[in-house]
Amino acid sequence: MSRRLERIRPSRAKVSLKKEAFAETFRDDTLLAFKSQMYTMRSLLLLLCLVTVHAFAAGPTGTLNDTGVTQCYDGTQMTTCTNANAGDAGSFPGQDGRFGRDAAAAAGALTKVGGGAAGFDFTALDASGNPIALDGSGVPVSTPVCVRDNVTNLIWVADGAVNGSLTWGAAQAYATTYSLCGYASGWRLPTRRELLSIVNFGAYLPAIDTNFFPNIIQISPYWTSDITQFGFAYSLTVFFADGTASADHQTNPNQVRLVRSGP
Question: Which residues of the chain have pLDDT under 70?
Fold first, then answer.
């Protein structure tokens, strides 16, 4: 009887080995869970840092610009927006051209402080920051040096080539001592959303109002202050040929268009 019990009951050595294996597995699982939590916390802290950097980099702005699209698709081509092609019961309902400042401008129902295509409202400024008059067609009578966006409350360097082609870090440093149109401080790289706010998606090659923003460079993108999800070595860019947003390594030279928040 005792021999049968010995065969059924595991030895103390076997029990000890099982306990050690369980303990080792428990330690490994606990360590893995701890590492996972730490990785999540680091990711959240990194995201918080990125958000904080951009929150301090970008100043207060006004409302949002519209896209510049004033036409609608009718199944064949872009044409005037109607109830038939873009109405709620139309063939292609809910199109961009039906709504917002652009639609009001197309209908002649938008009041502007300055000029600009579609729903954009720009005031051209001279080298001293004084408004430049517009001719009968809404075009500045002389070449703008800066442009005040009356919708977003941002002030832009008008000339698309005057700030040159710089690496991202050099552009950031360049902005700190920049002075133009009577503003000796506050200049910076725009965020991606800010730079996209002057893209006219209703135009192409270039996708911007050249009456207010001359000498646009189309073959090279313009830097933004935004860093990509790939890490701190890459920043977002915007092409003004068609308004495409992309990214590039910060050591590569790209075009620079500085901006500042309005007074």
Answer: 1-61
Q: Give the contacts of 71 (CB within 8 A, at least 6 positions apart).
A: 78, 79, 80, 81, 97, 202
Edge-to-edge strands, sheet with 165-166: 165-166, 254-255, 222-227, 234-238, 245-249
pLDDT of residue 229: 78
What long-range pairs does 3-12 form, CB within 8 A, spacing at least 24? none
Asked if 81 and 71 touch (Cβ cutoff 8 Å), the reply is yes
> For residue 70, what are its two tokens?
């004033």
| Tokens matching residue 228 | 């990509």
Q: What is the DSSP string of the chain?
A: -HHHHHHHSPPHHHHHHHHHHHHHHHHHHHHHHHHHHHHHHHHHHHHHHHHHHHHHHS----S-------EEE-SSSEEE--HHHHSTTSSS-S-GGGSHHHHHHHTT----SSB-STT--EEEE-TTSPBPPB-TTS-BSS--SEEEETTT-EEEE--SSTT-EE-HHHHHHHHHT--BTTB-S--BPPPHHHHHTT--TT--SS-S-TTTS-S--SSS-EEEEEEPTT-TTEEEEE-TTT--EEEEETTS-EE---EEE--
Q: Computed from CA positions of residues 183, 188, 193, 197, in that sequence, does the dihedral angle turn out positive or negative?
A: positive
Per-residue pLDDT at 19: 43
Taking the C-alpha atoms of residue 153 and residue 184, their distance in angstroms, rounded to an integer, is 18
Going by their DSSP bridges, the two strands 154-157 and 146-149 should be labelled as antiparallel
- To the nearest 10°, the Cα dihedral for 47, 50, 56, 61? -80
Instruction: Report domain extents, the chain.
Output: 2-55
